[in-house]
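Here comes a specimen:
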Amino acid sequence: MAYEFERKQRIGVLGGGPGGYEAAIAGAQLGAEVTLIERAGVGGSAVLTDVVPSKTLIATAEARSAIDDASDLGVQFFTRGESGRAVRPEIAVNLAAINKRLMGLARQQSEDMKANLKKAGVRIVTGEGRLEGPSRLVASTAKGAGGRDFDEIDVDTMVISTGSSPRVLPSAMPDGERIMTWTQLYNLADVPEHLIVVGSGVTGAEFASAYTALGSKVTLISSRDQVLPGEDADAASVIEEVFTRNGMTVLSKSRADKVEVIDGGVRATLSDGRIVEGSHCLMAVGSIPNTAGIGLEEAGVQLDASGHIRVNRVARTSVPAIYAAGDCTTFLPLASVASMQGRTAVFHAMGDAVNPTEIRNVASNIFTNPEIATVGWTQKQIEDGIAQGEIYKLPLESNPRAKMQGITDGFVKLFARTGSGTVIGGVIVSPRASELILPIALAVEHRLTVDQMARAFSVYPSLSGSITDAARAMHIVN
């Protein structure tokens, strides 16, 4: 008797960043035959040139700030000079050593992820990939004497996770030495004497904060009224106040028309004619999706005007067998979202249980000092009548743990549905806000009320106590 065995589902993944990595792992776990094509290294730019190195740099900057701030808590650093008198030592920052460490951590993280994929049985192809129709991927890999080999991979389902790249302007072309994108900063051997940051969005604000802490003079050029446009206005106000207090120059309502290299530095020309000169310039003017020239449109995949791939809440594109995840899509450009999209795509394609991604439930964080974490509906949406809610803001300076740690900047803000008291969002500005936002994210995800949050026991004293205090203040009278 002859038996027919069902063929394994074949999944092709283009791009090994967080979205592609999670898609490949999920497919292998569900028994699919998975091939992943990645040109730079597993983890993609998120691991190799973006999230991992930048957040490592920021963690180092925070350590530098902690030394400076220790004297406020009564901890002082002194050495004895030749006369025997106490002398405060200089705090040195070895940027070359910092960059060597962070790039080493990035490579190690990439290797760990690669090992996980191999252990799961995923086939990894190192090379440039493109689509040839909705069911075939072609990988172009280098071979000897400058030639190329081409590997054709037939698939039943494909997941596109090609990420994005820093946007560059013709009037401020990066040279990798004086004018740089955020992927090129890690080549610096010394802390810039005067770093000009063009762009006050998340990336610009994070690096401006970090390099100020590391000892650079920083000028932040913002085309908007306030840094971090689009973020919670109260949170952005706190960050801008901290920036200026720490010595940063913030030029609001300013636009850089041109940045050029001059002898020993750079010159930025603003639209109003002002000139700003510095030693280096970071261009942080957004990113563009890596979707051009890889066969998407020929395969029938719809893109929006900016080149991002249109996807629905299960990461499916306009072509049923093609999914997409991460910064190349129309969803939020966050590593956590990319990972969720990658898993969701494969679960959906293979008929497993799926929870469609709800963007409003995504917690996000800005790694300035202090950090800004948000989830759910925003205050502006409530004030504009898009959502019905009550707003309560509790300054962090009233928190006993904050007082002990010398924390004076920040707050906890909760948004609750009018009438029911259901938590619909929140904002935290605080050191480690990225850790503190989770209880509010859980409340939003599971539709808890402020009274249910208030009944949870927070540790005393703790920064998280401000979350339950805010919830208690919003008690709904029955």
Q: What stands out?
A: The chain has three domains: 10-48+100-165+288-360, 168-285, 370-473. Residues 10-48+100-165+288-360 form a domain with the FAD/NAD(P)-binding domain fold (CATH 3.50.50.60). The longest strand covers residues 423-430. The CA atoms of residues 37 and 221 lie 38 Å apart.
